[in-house]
TrEMBL record:
Keyword DNA-binding attributed: yes
GO MF term set: DNA-binding transcription factor activity; transcription cis-regulatory region binding
Listed name of the protein: TetR family transcriptional regulator
InterPro entries in UniProt: DNA-bd_HTH_TetR-type_CS (IPR023772), Homeodomain-like_sf (IPR009057), HTH-type_TetR-like_transc_reg (IPR050109), HTH_TetR (IPR001647), Tet_transcr_reg_TetR-rel_C_sf (IPR036271)
Length: 194
């Protein structure tokens, strides 16, 4: 039997994650049956579960992958950009980030075992947000009358509000000025520029 290259294995894993992201976003965790996962990925259950032990492992890997991608956006552009991407919904993955984020939130509320497993993986976004805010403060761009931990919590709460707003099917286009205000709230105001 010929050996499969690591590039091929990585591409297959990415194919599974991309298809599963769409399936979980569309059907939720419970509705993402093995048959639906097969259809969404274009692969057999054997191929899917060769890479992931079970559906739970697949979902955790997907949620972690999304958290890493969001953390990358935060590191370069800030947490408000993640929120803007969620509002836009038309980019390569932000609309599906919303589906994954909603499913993670639901499972955190209803599944203590999932909550315990997710706690180990969920800090990427907070760490990236805090590090970006520290860099912004060092550059003199961030207000200095409020601690970085408070600003991090503020931005994370706004993110949860945006996610809830979108989950309720409310219009996204009215939130851009709100996100402008959030950014303005975190910025340092120089004397005479207010």
């Amino acid at each position: 039997m010929p050996r499969v290259s690591q590039d091929h294995l990585d591409a297959r894993r990415r194919q599974i994650l991309d298809g599963a992201r769409v399936c979980f976003a569309r059907h939720g965790y419970e509705g993402a049956t093995v048959r639906r996962l097969e259809e969404a990925t274009g692969l057999s259950r054997g191929a899917i579960f060769h890479h992931f032990r079970d559906k739970e492992s697949l979902f955790l890997a997907l949620a972690e992958d999304d958290a890493v991608r969001m953390a990358d956006v935060v590191a370069e552009q800030g947490l408000v950009q993640v929120m803007r991407d969620l509002l836009a919904g038309g980019s390569a993955h932000p609309a599906d980030w919303l589906g994954t984020r909603l499913e993670v939130s639901r499972r955190l509320r209803t599944d203590p075992d999932f909550r315990a497993r997710w706690a180990e993986r969920s800090q990427q976004l907070t760490i990236a947000t805090r590090q970006r805010l520290l860099r912004q403060r060092e550059a003199g761009n961030l207000r200095d009358d409020v601690g970085v931990d408070v600003l991090t919590a503020f931005l994370e709460l706004v993110l949860e509000g945006v996610v809830s707003h979108l989950a309720m099917g409310l219009p996204a286009d009215d939130l851009e000025p709100v996100l402008d205000l959030v950014e303005e709230t975190a910025r340092r105001h120089r004397t005479g520029t207010r």
